[in-house]
Write a structure and sequence with these properties.
2 copies of one chain form a homodimer.
Chain A lengths: L3 E6 L3 H12 L5 E7 L16 E2 L3 H4 L6 E4 L4 H13 L4 E3 L2 H17 L4 E2 L10 H7 L6 E7 L2 H13 L3 H10 L8 H4 L2 H15 L9 E2 L7 H10 L2 E10 L4 E11 L12 E8 L3 E8 L3 H16 L16 E2 L4 E8 L4 H4 L4 E6 L5 E8 H6 L1 H4 L5 E4 L14
Parallel strand pairs in A: 1-2, 1-4, 2-3, 4-5, 5-6, 8-10, 10-13
Antiparallel strand pairs in A: 7-9, 7-11, 9-10, 11-12, 14-16, 14-17, 15-16
Helix pairs in contact in A: 1-11, 3-4, 4-9, 5-9, 6-7
């Protein structure tokens, strides 16, 4: 590949960042040949030659000179259509759409093989932190035990305003939206789905196993209330939205996205504001911590640039761990220790706790702390969506394995 | 490569760790066929079939079945001899000897090309933290501005005992030796040479430029005294031994290993005990932080395993940045702000300070704080070796560039 001629889909915050970053990189030998957008007349921050802009996808997909496709559109359906068309034509693709990738990963892997066309998506998980690449290449052995982290910058920003800056939740959310951290519909970030999609992608590169998003317990922070914040503060902990995939024994792993009480001794305790932080734990090397800006125009764009450079050097994900002997199986048959706050919903009677450890009833809100099977949480997930309920996990409590109290 | 048959040189702490780690890894498809040691009769912790052990290098180098060589001997001359013989025979090699690699890197790169034999050495820098691989592959673009970190676990352990646990320096050093963190001759760690060699290796993968170890200012912590510790404590900072390579403008970079006053707001402030931590700073992605166990038997062995797996998948360092347009040049013509404590040596008169900012004279020790050119520090390095002198850098003080006060 002498010079990279990029067809770019999407010219929002990240797309414009890519345009800027490529301009800065003297040694990338890459240029953007065409940019496909929904609305060619939309005002944009970046000053760009109008001849580069089109709203006709075929101007990119049918241009024989374009030898790489970069896709950063918002809409997962549009993303799927663009990426699959490009792969079928044998075009190398870089994508940043975590929702689309998480939902279609098995098919996308199969298409990469069938059409001998690589698809990279490191930017889709944790922006500028090279989590996927390191799980695929460096932690490419049987030693890996756990990947756990703060994968969503917007929700972390909001929680950080609450726990580090004593702001009320509603004000913190409004501020995040004002700064552009949270989408106009913030549920993608706030309800944990952004973290979930990243976790699905991480899991296939960490353990070689694809788990469907709908099979994973996902709980966000939209119902976080003053009494929960007070409870955490009294215990000297912060609440953070944590995604984790954990081997529970040689044959099984579990995974979920849930608020968690995070103790000051933990690495992720100090991941504040819009930052992301990931702990990779393994036999022999113990815990490694990677920390950086997980979102935003330029950090995401610099990650896309890394993927562009990697494609230039013929790098592709090999999904090696999918071919391993006896890959571990996903299980939700695992006991967690959770805090559940409620008001009207009769939580202690509705949920099949294995053991109730603590129960507190007051005018400010009731809570129960108990051990419960993850599969029961999944089964009763609709109940937990009631606006009077908030669920929060206690860390590394798995009844059937030895856990270290420190992270 | 169907099955990896390893010839292992060295069976000390790391060598035995490799033996254990390979045993744990079901999917590595690797086995150790022969182990070459200096003394076959030496008692070892690991129980091993004596038929595997030899003291004759040719039993490895001339065995046509052995298809990978792993070298973790202590002695740099022995390491050089083994690695170059293997490369000449076209054998893929994994090495952990940072001193040997840092001294011979240009020749080793040339030999890899000439004999089409790859050499990987990720374990040589920061043990289990994948710094080299990420600099080579992920930060493979013009955005990189700085790599700065704590690269030596032993000296960091000692400083952590002093600053986090209030131990006297001598006691901390003794404890480190007792725990096996510091070598019986601790000068390699304590005087900064271990950090220096790692920095040399990091620099070629970060910026594509080889700098000879002897051209880099290197100052350790052996002369750290009570008055320096008190000074740092009063200012609310810790002293850490920091290695850094920093672009000072588009055309130049500088590098050095020196104790530094580290402020609580910095990522590396919380790198305690025997841990390593590296900050990678770039345009667009700002600062990323990688943290983990930098040394020790199993962490280093797990990093060696990553290199073994990478060789299995035909990975090699391409040293791409060495081919970049206008690589930056190393400069020592750069102003630093330093603290120099002294007693008998008349430091203020001997050193050509550009500006003296503060001077303090007392019975407990005198110090001067001033700005000075790095090249003058290099020139007068022998003077600074006097036992009454301790030098400590103030962070990110470069007169000719904008620096952010926060890390």
């Amino acid at each position: 590949m002498k010079e990279i001629k990029i067809g770019l889909f999407g010219f929002g915050v990240v797309g414009q960042g890519i345009y800027k970053v490529i301009g800065k990189s003297r040694n990338a030998h890459a240029k953007i040949k065409k940019i496909c957008v929904r609305d060619v007349n939309k005002k944009r921050e970046v000053d760009i030659d109008p001849v580069l802009i089109t709203d006709d996808p075929s101007e990119i997909l049918s241009d024989p000179e374009i030898n790489m496709l970069v896709e950063v559109v918002d809409n997962p359906q549009a993303s799927y259509s663009i990426v699959t068309q490009a792969l079928k034509r044998g075009l190398p693709v870089v994508s940043g759409n975590k929702a689309m990738i998480a939902r279609h990963l098995p098919e996308l892997i199969e298409m990469q093989r069938r059409y001998n066309a690589p698809l990279l998506y490191d930017a889709s998980s944790c922006g500028s932190i090279p989590v996927i690449r390191n799980l695929e290449e460096y932690y490419d052995n049987d030693l890996l035990l756990e990947v756990k982290g703060i994968l969503n910058g917007s929700s972390n920003y909001i929680l950080s305003r609450v726990f580090d800056h004593n702001e009320p939740y509603a004000k913190a959310l409004a501020r995040a939206q004002q700064l552009g951290f949270a989408e106009s519909d913030p549920s993608f970030d706030i309800e944990g789905f952004d973290s979930l999609f990243k976790l699905i992608i991480i899991t296939i590169h960490a353990l070689g196993v694809y788990v469907k998003p709908e099979d994973v317990f996902t709980y966000g922070i939209s119902t976080l209330g003053e009494s929960d914040i007070r409870y955490a503060r009294e215990k000297g902990v912060k609440i953070k939205l944590v995604a984790q995939v954990v081997k529970v024994n040689d044959d099984n792993f579990t995974m979920f996205v849930m608020p968690e009480f995070v103790y000051p001794s933990r690495y992720i305790y100090s991941v504040d504001d819009e930052y992301n932080g990931v702990v990779i734990r393994g036999e022999c090397y113990d815990r490694q911590f990677m920390f950086g800006k997980g979102a935003g125009s330029l950090p995401t764009a610099s990650s896309i640039l890394s993927d562009i450079m990697a494609l230039r050097h013929n790098y592709r994900y090999e999904y090696k761990k999918m071919g391993y002997l006896n890959p571990p199986s996903y299980t939700s048959d695992i006991e967690l220790k959770v805090y559940i706050r409620y008001k009207e919903t009769p939580v202690p009677g509705l949920l099949p706790f294995r053991q109730i450890i603590e129960q507190h009833i007051s005018q400010n809100g009731n809570y129960v702390i108990g051990s419960i099977l993850l599969k029961d949480l999944i089964k009763l997930r609709p109940i937990l969506s009631a606006p009077d309920i908030f669920v929060c996990n206690f860390p590394t409590f798995f009844a059937d394995r030895d856990t270290s109290p420190e992270e």
